[in-house]
UniProtKB/TrEMBL annotation:
<dbReference type="Pfam" id="PF21537">
    <property type="entry name" value="DUF1980_C"/>
</dbReference>
<dbReference type="InterPro" id="IPR015402">
    <property type="entry name" value="DUF1980"/>
</dbReference>
<dbReference type="InterPro" id="IPR048447">
    <property type="entry name" value="DUF1980_C"/>
</dbReference>
<feature type="domain" description="DUF1980">
    <location>
        <begin position="11"/>
        <end position="93"/>
    </location>
</feature>
<feature type="compositionally biased region" description="Low complexity">
    <location>
        <begin position="120"/>
        <end position="129"/>
    </location>
</feature>
<keyword id="KW-0472">Membrane</keyword>
<feature type="transmembrane region" description="Helical">
    <location>
        <begin position="40"/>
        <end position="62"/>
    </location>
</feature>
<dbReference type="InterPro" id="IPR048493">
    <property type="entry name" value="DUF1980_N"/>
</dbReference>
<feature type="transmembrane region" description="Helical">
    <location>
        <begin position="74"/>
        <end position="92"/>
    </location>
</feature>
<protein>
    <recommendedName>
        <fullName>TIGR03943 family protein</fullName>
    </recommendedName>
</protein>
<keyword id="KW-0812">Transmembrane</keyword>
<keyword id="KW-1133">Transmembrane helix</keyword>
<dbReference type="InterPro" id="IPR052955">
    <property type="entry name" value="UPF0703_membrane_permease"/>
</dbReference>
<feature type="region of interest" description="Disordered">
    <location>
        <begin position="105"/>
        <end position="130"/>
    </location>
</feature>
<feature type="transmembrane region" description="Helical">
    <location>
        <begin position="9"/>
        <end position="28"/>
    </location>
</feature>
<feature type="domain" description="DUF1980">
    <location>
        <begin position="130"/>
        <end position="263"/>
    </location>
</feature>
<dbReference type="Pfam" id="PF09323">
    <property type="entry name" value="DUF1980"/>
</dbReference>
Length: 267
């Protein structure tokens, strides 16, 4: 008579090892970048170690047979594991991309509504305050190369929202960055958004933001295409708001980066 085994312990062992292997795969392949912020990587590696230790602890139980084992309730773990294998991780589409809104403009509008302040006098006050405020563009001058300020992924989020909050500081300066192409229904034929997707914590809060660009080769570009865009910032009126726009644009093809998202580090 053959030796019986504990089928429930075998199933538990399989699930734990499968979860650990799946996490190891997404970590080593960098697919994890689609799901969580890099600041969680240490926690994920710790989770992998814990899963493996739990699996090892079950080995001794496998040889201890049990009767009337109901394995159906383990489907709740097996189904998502199978789904992860059938549907591989992939980045989001640029269809969710939009323009950012200046936090300064928003706060000014709220203050006007609350205090019933005349918009013109408020604008004058904001202008005076911007003169006193330190030039927000100066901290990026260290990245200038041959007259062009190159914005890498590590500083992209800070730069992008600084431009929206302090457009006047950046007007007339030339920048270069890696981006995806996206169209908007109310844009002119030569306009498009050049932007990236931003992550604060995980895929649930992922949001795409882009900067308006004008180029005579717009018709040759396709949505979601990766490009390196270089252009001079100007202030552009869009739906009653002043937003940054790149003009005198130069575009070159770019390969899809290993890490597609921009991660916030200052929170």
């Amino acid at each position: 008579m053959g030796r019986k085994i504990n089928k429930e312990a075998v199933i538990q062992f399989f699930i734990l090892i499968s979860m650990a292997c799946l996490l190891i795969y997404v970590m080593l392949s960098r697919k994890v970048n689609y799901y969580v912020h890099p600041r969680f990587y240490i926690g994920l590696w710790i989770s992998i170690v814990i899963l493996i230790l739990f699996a090892i602890s079950l080995i001794s139980k496998i040889k201890k047979a049990r009767h009337n084992v109901n394995s159906r309730h383990y489907l709740i773990f097996i189904i998502p594991l199978m789904a992860a294998l059938i549907f591989p991780p992939a980045g989001v589409s640029g269809k969710d991309m939009n323009m950012a809104e200046s936090s300064l403009s928003a706060s000014t509008s709220e203050k006007q509504a609350d205090e019933n302040i005349d918009p013109e006098s408020s604008t004058e006050t904001a202008t005076e305050e911007s003169v006193v405020r330190e030039d927000a563009s100066k901290k990026y001058e260290q990245y200038e190369v041959a007259g062009v300020i190159v914005i890498g992924d590590d500083i992209f989020s800070d730069w992008f929202f600084d431009v929206y909050d302090h457009i006047d500081n950046f007007v007339g300066k030339k920048y270069q960055y890696l981006a995806q192409v996206y169209s908007m229904k109310d844009f002119k034929a030569d306009q498009f958004l050049a932007g990236r997707h931003f992550m604060v914590c995980c895929a649930a809060d992922l949001a795409g933001y882009g900067m308006v660009c004008e180029s005579d080769i717009r018709s040759k570009l396709t949505d979601d295409e990766w490009i390196t865009v270089t252009g001079t910032i100007t202030a552009y009126q869009y739906n009653g708001y002043a937003v940054p726009m790149l003009t005198d644009v130069t575009i070159t093809e770019a390969e899809t980066p290993e890490v597609e998202y921009i991660y916030f580090n200052n929170y």
